[in-house]
Structures are given as structure tokens and as C-alpha cells.
Amino acid sequence: QKHLLGIEPLHPTEITTILDVADSYVDLNRQAHKHSDALKGMTQINMFFENSTRTQSSFELAGKRLGADVMNMSMQASSIKKGETLIDTALTLNAMHPDLLVVRHPHSGAVDLLAEKVNCAVLNAGDGRHEHPTQALLDALTIRRAKGRLHRLSIAICGDIAHSRVARSNLILLGKMENRVRLVGPPTLIPAGMTELGCEVYEDMEEGLKDVDVVMMLRLQKERMDGGFIPSEREYFHRYGLDAAKLAHAKPDAIVMHPGPMNRGVEIDGTIADDINRSVIQEQVEMGVAVRMAAMDLLARNLRASKNSADQGIM
Ligand code: CP
Predict the structure, then answer these.
(1) Residue 50 C-alpha to ligand 1 middle, in angstroms?
(2) Of the four listed, 16, 208, 211, 244, which is most buried by Cβ atoms within 10 Å?
(3) Partners of 46 in the beta sheet?
(4) With 80 as the cut, is the pLDDT of residue 39 above it?
(5) Which residue's C-alpha comes closest to atom 5 of ligand 1?
(6) CA-CA distance, 9 to 81, in Å (whole number)?
(7) Does the pLDDT at position 315 exceed 60?
(8) Over the stretch 269-293, which tens digit does the pLDDT of each residue have?
(9) Ligand 1 atom, smallest distance to 56 CA
């Protein structure tokens, strides 16, 4: 692949390769010397048009640990504020010869459009409600390390599915790897047509969690509910917030995940989120750095291979 724009175009073997490489970076990141030269001589530009804590910091750290020159564009201070378009901004940066462009944008499809206009490898760091591929990959790595496999697991994705690019990328990935995916939430927050995609849909949380191996909670994304129905937080927590009573319906060794940022007391009880025997939320953050290192390393290998082929006239 030239870019990482979504999970949709990836073959299961490519997913496995990314996770295998990421596993090796987990080991590197746990050592005192956390450095490799995989991106030495390369330039990585991070463009975040939406707020981020985990994704932006882990992409920056990943690039630096791999030896890249990393630049974080401050979109608030950029000429976007003077009316420059996304494409003109990307073309301007492209003229400075970056090798990797990491982009988060509030509009679905914006990152794909940008990838058509630039010469470098583009990584989607989340576009609207569309995809968040590195989140799904880090979730997959977390599950594989906790459960010892990434197939034939029963996984419940719970809450605000309708506004979630995390849910979309995860259900595509987990389906490709032959897992049983359940979507659990209020009908207003589950898009139509999910059963046709092979998911089981549950309105009742206790039924939806029955005997699952993995419980993946999602943030209630009020900022994307433009004018639509917004549930009351109290009522939402009562019916769909993960607490000990609801979690008791999952398998006794089921793990609890959340991509962050969390609304404690809305979609998840704080004591469950902090329970180190069940929650792998901090491991997800750790896997985020390793997966982003792997994704950029593999794209850089492809860039170098196609440049070598072009230099030898075998394109
Ligand atoms: N999970 C996730 O994308 O978090 P950030 O918005 O903090 O990057």
C-alpha cells in the first residue's frame, strides 16, 4: 500500500504483518534505548484539524523514535485561518518534500481527497465518521496480546456507533479477521444496515454483553450530534454505561476497552475503567505508539522500494 487511509483496503495478511511489526516495536519501546533508524532521513508532517491527545502525541513520538524529522503543523496558527483550503495547504506542504503526512480532519473523505493530490505517503489519523485505521489496529494488537489470538472471538462494541469512526474501522477489521461482532446501543445511535454487514445488533446491554470476550466502549460524541437527539447523561449511564453489574454478563475473563477520551460516569464507570484486572485502556495507549511506528515503517519501506524501482527504470 502507498497510503494508510482506512482498514477497508487492507487484506488480513497485511493486517497481521502490521501487528507483527508493531509487536517488535512494543519490545523496543520498553527498553531504555527506544530508538531505531527506520525513518532516518525522512520527514513526517502531522496536520491535525481536530483536537487530539493520544493520536497526535503517539504519531509524534513514533516518528521521533524511528529517527524521522517530525513537524507538527499548528492548524490554529496556519493560513487555514485566512481562508486557505485544505488542498492548497497540502500542496504547499507537499512542495517541501515530506515523506509522510499524518492527517486528522472533521470531514469524512477529506484525507482520501488529500492523498490524491500529494506525492508522499498519507496516514489517516481519523476523518469525520469514516475511518480511524490506526485506532482499529492498536485495538487489534491489544486484543491479540490479551487473548492470544485475533479470530473467533466474540466482541461487543457498545454505545454511540452512529458517530464513531473507531467503531467503523473496528467492525471492518474484526470482521476481516473472522470474529463475531455485536453492536450494542440505543437504536438512535446505531446506523441502519448493520446486520447486513454481518454484525448482531442489541438494544439491551445485558443481552448484548452475554458471554463476550471483549467489551469495547465508545465515547458519546455530542459534538457530532448536530441538532439530533442527545440522550440525557444520567439516563444513558443507567441503560448503557458499563458498570460491574452489566460487565458480569460478559465472560469472567472478558477485557474492557475504550479508545479515549472517556466520559467517566456517562459511558463507563470510573472504577471499571481503572480496574487493572479487566481494563486494558492504558495498554491501548501503549499499543498506539507501536502500531503507528509499524504503519510508518512499512509505508517507508514501500516508498523506498518504489523509489529504487523508479531509479532503476522498472516502474
Ligand atoms: N482515540 C483517539 O483518537 O484519541 P484522541 O482524540 O485523543 O487522539
Answers:
(1) 10
(2) 208
(3) 72, 102
(4) yes
(5) 52
(6) 33
(7) no
(8) 999 999 999 999 999 999 999 999 9
(9) 8
- 100 with 45: CB under 8 angstroms? yes
Q: Is 55 annotated as a binding residue?
A: yes
Q: Is 271 a catalytic residue?
A: no
Predicted TM-score (pTM) of the model is 0.96
Give pLDDT, residue 197: 83
Cα distance between residue 112 and residue 39, in whole Å: 23
List C-alpha distances in Å: 257 to 63, 119, 152, 244, 247: 25, 36, 18, 14, 12
Asked whether the ipTM of the predicted complex exceeds the cut of 0.85, the reply is yes
142 is catalytic: no
With a Cβ cut-off of 6 Å, ligand 1 is lined by: 52-55, 126, 135, 259-261
- Give the pLDDT score at 59: 98
Please, which residues bridge with residue 215 across strands? 156, 256
* Vertex 99: Cα angle to 21 and 43 (nearest 5): 90
**Mean pLDDT over the full length of the chain:** 95
Residue type at 277? N
Q: Other CB atoms closer than 10 Å to residue 309's CB: what's the count? A: 11
Q: Identify the active-site residue in 33, 81, 82, 97.
A: 82
- For residue 53, the ligand 1 atom closest to its alpha carbon is 7
Question: Which residue's C-alpha cell is 454505561?
Answer: 241
